[in-house]
Amino acid sequence: MDSGFDTVFSMREYGVEEAIFQQHFEQAKTLFRHYNDLFDIYNDYDGLPNIKTINDNAGRQAVTVDPVIIELLQEAKTFYTFSNDTFDITSGALLNVWHTYREEGLALNEKGEKGKLPTLEELSEAGLHKGWDLVEINVDAHTVYIKDAAVSLDVGGIAKGFAIEKIAHALQESGAKCVAINAGGNVRTIGAKPDGNAWSIGIQNPGGAGSLFALRVPGAHSFVTSGDYERFYVAEDGNTYSHIIDPTTLYPARRFHSVSIVTSDSGAADCLSTTLFMLDYESGLKVIDAYRKEHPQEMLEAIWIMDPEQVPDNVENVHIVTQYAAVYTDGLKDALVWPQ
User: Rounded CA gap, 3 and 198, in Å?
Assistant: First the structure.
């Protein structure tokens, strides 16, 4: 059942009675739905100004919002800088064009027909309407104002991970000590498993059900994957088009099948997985290095799933799994469990 963010929310907690677990689970679900409503760009909610409210008032007036929206936007702006302008939530106009064609395409695909593609003219025009210089954030007044009526915010690359991180902190404040949260593949662990074993996370097989291999990391971490196997449609040219749009090309990114991030903060992991999915491998490594320098105490590792012929030259950490190549950062050498 969809609990928010168009995904299923699940949670495991160890070492507590059923009644305590139910309290924590209801708290987490309630917060997950609340953050969904706050960060929604498609629906209105009575008495709750959200991202859609900000977009609807672009070019007209500032909107007073919950401070957590301000916090979300500020974090997104930070990652805009980290990504050398690649991760850009102000590109909502461009993403909305693709959203419209994707939704129509999915409906046509269900009927056995192929979807249409937006024209380059449509994409080019929408791609012009973006920029953080057009977004005014007043932290003290809790207001957000978009100065250009054609500009809109799309927080799909950060919202779910950001929400899960908030929920993890709320659960810890409520006394939770050993928890695993899973929201459509966004996994956040709290504490260590009672038996001392590492948490085991499967890396999705892009071509079908199940996992390609497993990742085993002890302690509290976030695991987030961005992939081309979710929310894609088949277009009239016979190609598939995913939901992750590269603002530099105006088209869905096509370099990799997925990028998975392991780090402490789920919001950061969400941003980083989206960013690295759009960038080439070498540029992605530079983003990782920049983030590590700013957060020297945090673990940050990545896994790229790609076609074998796409593996860059001189890459040492690569493993062929079925028809895919898994490329990974040094810190994961002993954490990956390959199929026998």
Answer: 28
Q: What is the length of the chain? A: 340
Structure tokens given for 6: 């168009």
177-225 confidence digits (pLDDT tens): 999 999 988 999 999 888 888 999 999 999 877 899 999 998 899 999 9
Q: Model confidence over 316-326: pLDDT tens digits?
A: 999 999 999 99
More confident site: 179 or 314:
179
**Averaged pLDDT, 301-313:** 97
pLDDT at 1: 46
Dist. CA 247–CA 278, nearest whole Å:
9
Classify the C-alpha dihedral 8-14-17-23 as positive or negative: negative
Contacts of residue 250, defined as CB under 8 A and 6 or more positions apart, other chains included, come to 94, 120, 123, 124, 127
Helix (H), strand (E) at residue 67: helix 67-82
SS3 174: coil
Strands (E), the chain: 2-4, 7-13, 63-64, 135-138, 143-146, 179-183, 186-190, 199-204, 211-217, 222-227, 233-234, 240-241, 245-246, 251-252, 258-263, 300-306, 318-321, 324-328, 336-337
Beta carbons within 8 Å of 315's beta carbon, 6+ residues apart: 281, 327
Name the nearest CA neighbour of 129 among 148, 157, 101: 148
Which residue blocks in 256-320 are alpha helix, DSSP H? Answer: 266-278, 281-294
pLDDT of residue 2: 59
